[in-house]
């Protein structure tokens, strides 16, 4: 079954055009006008194809054939980071849609469902994979009001403003009839581009732990306060940011740590700040490495605060475990890549993905395509058209094989039943 590569690219280009900020990449936060425009675009396609499209209480979308049981889920997200790229998430969504369209065009009444997970990036609440955390019960009703954006608006406020929240709808999903969950994504790192790979098969999705550290000291006049005796939270922040880099480097084992968001109060050139608040994002493919690194960062920040006589508070914003994906799916994908003589390899994902959240409930697998120069979460994020099409065709072929193997098993079973004396 051949996908329509041009249709895939046209949808991606259209979505980029309708929600991009010229020259500054794509900013499509969940529950905004931009998000809504993308949802409307998808709903027109779903309508043209006669697919059903449902939105749940937290804004996750399910698209499938009317009678589908959703045994195979293909999913990704349409939200972005601020000034992000045009492919992170949306490539997986349009690929999934293309698979659904190709199956339908071929007259196959499949049990494939496209899932669009809400608020994957954590752009609003600092915690990634919000939609899938609700589906899997990691987040519960309390989190609807515990999750707050920078302006103090809760997730529930956002959901009610969009009309998604409905107390009668379940927040969780029943995965008992789901056979596998799949996601195709750009790699977002340099491995595939550097090694000239065509297909990446994801082994383990990194775990992550995000801290928010706040230092508060004594705000004062920048000119009239002598250097001796200052209690400057900015200096404590600067020292901690460098320590974070060193701790992660010393940890080795592929551990990464990033200070990505800083807010300074009051933030004026001629005022010693009274407080500095910043995030630290720690990741690795082994929870022990992540936990040890987080612990060292906590201790170091407290020690620096002590020495500099500023106050220090540390809050856990979010955490998720490192998740190895399904061996069965990895082996099936490797066999397919061998058969098709593709240049591929197994690799870990430093980015987190909703599919990993679902992995404890069903078989989960992921495919990567190369990111040019390994850039992502920035406007320069890009992938060659040929790689985008190849990846989606590979997903299509994997699903076609899965469906035909399942049909073969069913035929075998029914012939065994018929042949029983
Ligand atoms: C999401 O893309 C993340 O890995 O932070
Ligand atoms: Mn993504
Ligand atoms: Mn992302």
Mean pLDDT: 96
The count of strands amounts to: 15
In percent terms, what proportion of residues is strand?
Answer: 15-25%
User: How many DSSP helices?
Assistant: 12
Class derived from helix and strand content: alpha/beta
Low-confidence stretches: none
Q: Which cofactors or ions or other ligands sit in this model?
A: glyoxylic acid, manganese (II) ion
Radius of gyration: 23 Å
**Biggest sheet features:** 9 strands, mixed
Fraction of residues in helix: 25-40%
Shape: elongated
Order of SSEs: HHEEEHEHHHEHEEEHEEEHEEHEHEH
Q: Ends: how far apart?
A: 39 Å
Task: Characterize the structure shown.
Helix 1 (5-19) packs antiparallel against helix 3 (90-105), helix 1 (5-19) crosses helix 12 (385-419) and helix 8 runs antiparallel to helix 9 (287-307). The model has no long low-confidence stretch (mean pLDDT 96). Strand 3 (72-77), helix 3 and strand 4 form a beta-alpha-beta unit. Helix content is 39%, strand content 22%. The chain has helices at 5-19, 33-48, 90-105, 130-135, 141-146, 155-162, 191-195, 233-251, 287-307, 327-339, 354-358, 385-419, and strands at 52-55, 61-64, 72-77, 112-117, 180-186, 199-205, 207-216, 220-221, 256-265, 271-272, 275-284, 311-320, 323-324, 344-349, 363-369. Bound molecules: glyoxylic acid (GLV) and manganese (II) ion (2 copies).
């Amino acid at each position: 079954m051949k996908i329509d590569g041009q249709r895939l690219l046209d949808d991606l280009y259209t979505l980029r055009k309708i929600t991009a900020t010229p020259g500054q990449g794509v900013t499509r936060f969940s529950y905004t006008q931009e998000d809504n425009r993308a949802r409307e675009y998808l709903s027109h396609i779903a309508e043209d194809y006669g697919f059903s499209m449902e939105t749940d209480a937290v804004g996750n979308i399910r698209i499938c054939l009317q009678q589908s049981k959703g045994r195979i889920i293909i999913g990704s997200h349409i939200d972005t980071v601020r000034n992000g790229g045009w492919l992170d998430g949306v490539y997986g969504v349009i690929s999934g849609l293309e698979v659904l369209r190709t199956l339908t065009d071929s007259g196959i009444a499949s049990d494939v469902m496209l899932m669009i997970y809400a608020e994957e990036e954590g752009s609003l609440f600092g915690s990634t994979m919000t939609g899938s955390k609700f589906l899997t019960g990691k987040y519960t009703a309390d989190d609807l009001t515990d999750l707050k954006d920078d302006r103090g608006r809760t997730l529930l406020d956002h959901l009610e403003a969009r009309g998604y929240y409905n107390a009668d709808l379940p927040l969780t999903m029943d995965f008992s009839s789901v056979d596998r969950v799949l996601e195709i994504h750009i790699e977002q790192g340099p491995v595939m581009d550097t090694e000239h790979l065509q297909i990446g098969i994801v082994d383990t999705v990194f775990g992550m732990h995000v801290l928010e550290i706040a230092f508060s000291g004594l705000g004062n006049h920048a000119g009239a306060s002598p250097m001796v005796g200052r209690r400057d939270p900015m200096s404590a922040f600067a020292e901690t940011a460098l320590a974070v880099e060193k701790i992660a480097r010393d940890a080795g084992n592929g551990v990464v740590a990033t200070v990505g968001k800083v807010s300074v109060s009051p933030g004026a050139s001629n005022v010693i700040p009274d407080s500095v608040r910043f995030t630290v994002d720690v990741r690795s493919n082994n929870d022990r490495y992540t936990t040890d690194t987080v612990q060292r960062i906590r201790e170091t920040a407290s020690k620096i605060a002590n020495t500099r006589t500023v106050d220090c508070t540390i809050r856990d914003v979010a955490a998720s475990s490192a998740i190895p994906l399904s061996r069965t799916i990895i082996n099936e994908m490797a066999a397919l890549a061998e058969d098709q003589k593709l240049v591929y390899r197994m690799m870990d994902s430093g980015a987190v993905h909703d599919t990993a959240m679902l992995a404890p409930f069903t078989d989960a697998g992921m495919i990567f395509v190369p990111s040019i120069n390994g850039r992502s979460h920035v406007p320069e994020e890009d992938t060659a058209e040929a790689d985008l099409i190849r990846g989606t065709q590979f997903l299509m072929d994997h699903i076609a094989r899965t469906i035909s193997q399942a049909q073969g098993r069913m035929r075998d079973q029914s012939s065994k039943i018929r042949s029983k004396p």
